[in-house]
């Protein structure tokens, strides 16, 4: 009897061992659940760290969450046509689902944009266009008209006589050229204002400050500075404060960075032409996804601008807070 019990224990243990290992093998070789592969859209900015482009990124990521797509946000560390084109080529070689790209120099971007489209990848330009390329759509400001808005605001602030200086975020950058073009067109048609100097910051804060100081030191009779990119106004504000010219030299700039609005409140910046970067990013992703899903969406999608000054600053901030809380 004891021998029987001994063998029974051995056999039971062996059986349990075999069953346990079979279970382990079944778990080990269980067919993995396949994860859905989401489309990837590459968003290529002007300069990666520029705060304006972080707003574009937020809008793109909001739309991406809604449409089930991944955003890969990229951009040069410094303003560079070559690097911008290289990033488009890399995205194309990686066979991403779509590309949203800022255009610095239309003539140099057209070929690579056309190649992407001909290769079957949808590409949308944002903030600065390449209208002579085969891009599907452009999302952003009418930059010539925005320049005219800036010209109208300068005349409102200093009248129809006097000298102004211009600081632009790159003398070879398309949307910056267009804003200056619109500005010149408006003041030439509606005033006797003279442009004393045009300097470039390449969209860097320090360079904008140095450019403003150069203009004001060389032309002490300048009444206003017109600044065409987001960081130019902040650089000009630093220069004006440093030279003790707050309130004496008007600053009309672009965009609604928190520091820009703070400087309006303090009376350093006179007014700013506000664009809609969040909406640009949001709309661009939806255009790409519509095309991927078979709904052909092409053409111009122009976002409007608003002039913000001390008079409407509080109301604008309230609207801004409500808008961002709604889209979170």
UniProtKB/TrEMBL annotation:
Q: Which UniProt keywords apply?
A: Membrane, Signal, Transmembrane, Transmembrane helix
Q: Where in the cell is it found?
A: Cell envelope
Transmembrane annotation, as ranges: 7-25
Domain Periplasmic binding protein, by residue range, is: 41-295
Show the coiled coil region(s). none
What name appears for this protein in its UniProt entry? Monosaccharide ABC transporter substrate-binding protein, CUT2 family
Q: Which GO terms describe its molecular function?
A: carbohydrate binding
Keyword match Transmembrane helix:
yes
Q: Which Pfam family is one of those matched by this entry? A: Peripla_BP_4
Q: Which GO terms describe its cellular component?
A: cell envelope
Q: Keyword Protein transport, does the record have it?
A: no
Which source organism does the UniProt entry give? Caldicoprobacter faecalis
What the record says about family reads: Belongs to the bacterial solute-binding protein 2 family.
């Amino acid at each position: 009897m004891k021998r029987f019990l001994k063998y029974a224990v051995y056999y039971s243990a062996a059986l349990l061992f075999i069953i346990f290992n079979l279970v382990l093998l079944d778990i080990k070789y269980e067919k993995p659940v396949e994860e859905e592969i989401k489309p990837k859209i590459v968003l290529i900015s002007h300069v990666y760290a520029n705060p304006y482009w972080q707003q574009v990124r937020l809008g793109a990521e909001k739309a991406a969450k809604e449409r089930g797509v991944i955003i890969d946000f990229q951009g040069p560390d410094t303003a560079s046509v070559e690097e911008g084109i290289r990033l488009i080529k890399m995205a194309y070689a990686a066979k991403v689902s779509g590309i949203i790209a800022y255009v610095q120099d239309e003539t140099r971007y057209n070929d690579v944009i056309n190649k992407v489209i001909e290769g079957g990848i949808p590409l949308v330009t944002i903030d600065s266009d390449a209208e002579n390329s085969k891009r599907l759509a452009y999302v952003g400001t009418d930059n010539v008209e925005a320049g005219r808005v800036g010209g109208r605001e300068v005349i409102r602030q200093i009248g129809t006589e006097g000298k102004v200086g211009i600081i632009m975020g790159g003398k070879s950058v398309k949307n910056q050229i267009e804003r200056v073009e619109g500005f010149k067109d408006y003041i030439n048609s509606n005033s006797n204002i003279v442009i004393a100097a045009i300097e470039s910051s390449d969209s860097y804060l320090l360079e904008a400050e140095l450019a403003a100081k150069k203009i004001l030191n060389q032309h002490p009779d300048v009444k206003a500075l017109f600044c065409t990119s987001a960081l130019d106004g902040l650089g000009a504000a630093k220069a004006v404060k440093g030279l003790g010219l707050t309130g004496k030299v008007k600053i009309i700039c672009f965009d609604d960075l928190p520091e820009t609005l703070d400087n309006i409140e303090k009376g350093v910046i006179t007014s700013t032409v506000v664009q809609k970067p969040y909406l640009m990013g949001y709309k661009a992703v939806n255009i790409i996804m519509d095309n991927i899903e078979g709904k052909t969406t092409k053409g111009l999608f122009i976002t409007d601008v608003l002039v913000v000054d001390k008079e409407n600053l509080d109301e604008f901030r309230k609207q801004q807070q409500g808008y961002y809380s709604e889209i979170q």
